[in-house]
UniProtKB/TrEMBL annotation:
The protein's name in its UniProt record: RNA polymerase sigma-70 factor, sigma-E family
GO biological process: DNA-templated transcription initiation
Domain named RNA polymerase sigma factor 70 region 4 type: residues: 107-158
Record-level Gene Ontology MF annotations: DNA binding; sigma factor activity
Family: Belongs to the sigma-70 factor family. ECF subfamily.
Ranges where the RNA polymerase sigma-70 region domain occurs: 20-83
Keywords tagged on the record: DNA-binding, Sigma factor, Transcription, Transcription regulation
Source superkingdom: Bacteria
Length: 180
């Protein structure tokens, strides 16, 4: 006997097929590890599935799903038992970037991973997901002033970590002046 399917399984399956990759990518930018990103995205999608029947605004699903991914990431970083980075004799295997300067992407990814989690979440949402200040504040559940200050601190930390050898990530590229 086959298990009973809920009436919203079809809708959720379509949403999952269309958005799972985007959620995984956002999680990767937050944590810098594809395995952890997969876990974060899966946890977020399970939470989304459980909440699906209560979601009245299906036009705002992307914002809600993004919020669940960010909050799952932040909650994971608060856990006392979380994994610490382990030094090994060989660098980890990273997936090859589709085009662009792979070396610069790896350096940027490593620098982003060294930025504190809340600042990293703001940077990813503002500059990768291209959300405005208000949208970012809504995802993180904080004020717009907090978003602005965390973005400023995160950019300073990122520039410090990247150093002068990466001028493409300097003031003019990351000031956010062209952002909403």
């Amino acid at each position: 006997m086959a298990p009973a399917r809920s009436p919203w399984d079809g809708e959720f399956s379509q949403y999952f097929a269309a958005r799972a990759h985007m959620l995984r990518s956002t999680a990767y930018l937050l944590c810098g590890d594809w395995h952890r990103a997969e876990d974060i995205a899966q946890t977020a999608l399970v939470k989304l599935y459980v909440a699906w029947p209560r979601l009245s605004r299906h036009d705002a699903l992307d914002a809600y799903a993004r919020r669940v991914v960010v909050r799952t990431f932040l909650a994971e970083n608060r856990r006392l038992w979380r994994r610490r980075e382990q030094l090994t004799g060989e660098p980890p295997e990273l997936p090859a970037a589709a085009g662009g300067d792979t070396g610069a992407r790896m350096v940027l990814s490593a620098a982003l991973a060294a930025v504190p989690p809340k600042q990293r979440a703001v940077l990813v949402l503002r500059y990768w997901e291209d959300l405005g200040v208000e949208e970012t504040a809504a995802v993180l559940g904080c004020s717009t002033g907090t978003v602005k200050s965390q973005a400023a601190r995160g950019l300073v930390a990122l520039r410090r970590l990247l150093g002068p050898q990466f001028p493409q990530f300097g003031e003019s590229a990351m000031t956010g002046e062209t952002r909403r």
